[in-house]
């Protein structure tokens, strides 16, 4: 799983929209804020020159900020901007010239610190919420984080499940301080094999130590490094000419979105499929990201027609074939598959869309304007009910907690349930796909 995620990371950045948020994209093309240089004497640094970052941290919306001196980059794409344009009060301490470390607090709703960003400068800590400095800050680091030293090099959040408890890892020289958020206990470690990190970043459940223009992925509990590191950050965490595969993939406009399929599994992972790529839609805290389908579902090399999730498995339909994978990572194809649609579900292809509602056993198969219901708990599988729908051209469909959504191009139709859909005779007004839903731009 670790390895495949590294590959994904690389390919995600190389092949598709590396700039995962709308904000990134809007910033990338237009504004080179030259006027800023009149106030700040540092010329805008270029991260493609191979620089060492002071700190890296995401905000509550999944925008990732890379800090260097008094500048930052917002996202994986775009030019440097003055940090105080985003975090205003940092300018009052401008003489400090940089931040030492930063991280986003996670999972601490009970103490009111959910999704706050902390910055560390010398012996002070700044807490930001919604890009505003909170009252009482800056304060001495040890008032908030007893046992954690001043003049840090790096910091990164580590939620329970990935660390033993909700923690923050602080780095200073060769020392690593594992700070338990609830108990405020600090465990000091030396990970001598790990380079001294000047910034650290958690991204899509993986941990990265940045040093020079390189990074090394490590295990947050053991510090273990698996795989070939260091790697050059410019291939992975930013877009630079002559690095990575250099593709200038664009984030689509919402009005140009077309889906082949969409599904959400029992663990809440939500995937949208288009062409040879898929996008995770449930990772908003880290931005939305696109990966090649075949990176996760190896045998599916030519796109999909329909995808649905049922009982810890994901069913991928292409032509007259069905591939069934275990949902848990790494996705493995169940032995004996792909099989023909006829053998598996008792129907002929092609299929336009398919969905199962949570805890139900019926797969609703859309073919043209027909919806065919097949009971997955019965053998042999046969079409138990058919309904003619008022909508034509359905390309993808999903059943979620708020009902059924059927996608036609960049529009979708929303029904309370498959039952309501089956009985509907009138064509309702479609709604437009939004940036929040698909990571597209208006
Ligand atoms: C965040 O800040 C913006 C602009 O300053 C404001 O409009 C918005 O209401 C704030 N949101 C929250 C949750 O405080
Ligand atoms: C790492 O930090 C320690 C303590 O500051 C320092 O002695 C050591 O030289 C550093 N190592 C490297 C490779 O920079
Ligand atoms: C970066 O990594 C490469 C090996 O991949 C190494 O040769 C180089 O010295 C490293 N540079 C820095 C600044 O860490």
TrEMBL record:
<keyword id="KW-0813">Transport</keyword>
<dbReference type="GO" id="GO:0015232">
    <property type="term" value="F:heme transmembrane transporter activity"/>
</dbReference>
<dbReference type="GO" id="GO:0006879">
    <property type="term" value="P:intracellular iron ion homeostasis"/>
</dbReference>
<dbReference type="InterPro" id="IPR016358">
    <property type="entry name" value="Hemopexin"/>
</dbReference>
<feature type="repeat" description="Hemopexin">
    <location>
        <begin position="194"/>
        <end position="240"/>
    </location>
</feature>
<feature type="repeat" description="Hemopexin">
    <location>
        <begin position="50"/>
        <end position="90"/>
    </location>
</feature>
<feature type="signal peptide">
    <location>
        <begin position="1"/>
        <end position="18"/>
    </location>
</feature>
<keyword id="KW-1015">Disulfide bond</keyword>
<dbReference type="InterPro" id="IPR000585">
    <property type="entry name" value="Hemopexin-like_dom"/>
</dbReference>
<feature type="glycosylation site" description="N-linked (GlcNAc...) asparagine">
    <location>
        <position position="196"/>
    </location>
</feature>
<feature type="repeat" description="Hemopexin">
    <location>
        <begin position="256"/>
        <end position="300"/>
    </location>
</feature>
<dbReference type="GO" id="GO:0046872">
    <property type="term" value="F:metal ion binding"/>
</dbReference>
<feature type="disulfide bond">
    <location>
        <begin position="197"/>
        <end position="209"/>
    </location>
</feature>
<dbReference type="Pfam" id="PF00045">
    <property type="entry name" value="Hemopexin"/>
</dbReference>
<keyword id="KW-0408">Iron</keyword>
<comment type="function">
    <text>Binds heme and transports it to the liver for breakdown and iron recovery, after which the free hemopexin returns to the circulation.</text>
</comment>
<feature type="binding site" description="axial binding residue">
    <location>
        <position position="245"/>
    </location>
    <ligand>
        <name>heme</name>
    </ligand>
</feature>
<feature type="disulfide bond">
    <location>
        <begin position="357"/>
        <end position="399"/>
    </location>
</feature>
<feature type="repeat" description="Hemopexin">
    <location>
        <begin position="149"/>
        <end position="193"/>
    </location>
</feature>
<dbReference type="InterPro" id="IPR018487">
    <property type="entry name" value="Hemopexin-like_repeat"/>
</dbReference>
<dbReference type="GO" id="GO:0005615">
    <property type="term" value="C:extracellular space"/>
</dbReference>
<comment type="similarity">
    <text>Belongs to the hemopexin family.</text>
</comment>
<feature type="disulfide bond">
    <location>
        <begin position="158"/>
        <end position="163"/>
    </location>
</feature>
<keyword id="KW-0732">Signal</keyword>
<feature type="repeat" description="Hemopexin">
    <location>
        <begin position="301"/>
        <end position="348"/>
    </location>
</feature>
<feature type="binding site" description="axial binding residue">
    <location>
        <position position="289"/>
    </location>
    <ligand>
        <name>heme</name>
    </ligand>
</feature>
<dbReference type="InterPro" id="IPR036375">
    <property type="entry name" value="Hemopexin-like_dom_sf"/>
</dbReference>
<keyword id="KW-0479">Metal-binding</keyword>
<feature type="repeat" description="Hemopexin">
    <location>
        <begin position="96"/>
        <end position="148"/>
    </location>
</feature>
<keyword id="KW-0349">Heme</keyword>
<dbReference type="InterPro" id="IPR051298">
    <property type="entry name" value="Heme_transport/Cell_adhesion"/>
</dbReference>
<keyword id="KW-0677">Repeat</keyword>
<keyword id="KW-0325">Glycoprotein</keyword>
<feature type="disulfide bond">
    <location>
        <begin position="48"/>
        <end position="240"/>
    </location>
</feature>
<keyword id="KW-0964">Secreted</keyword>
<protein>
    <recommendedName>
        <fullName>Hemopexin</fullName>
    </recommendedName>
</protein>
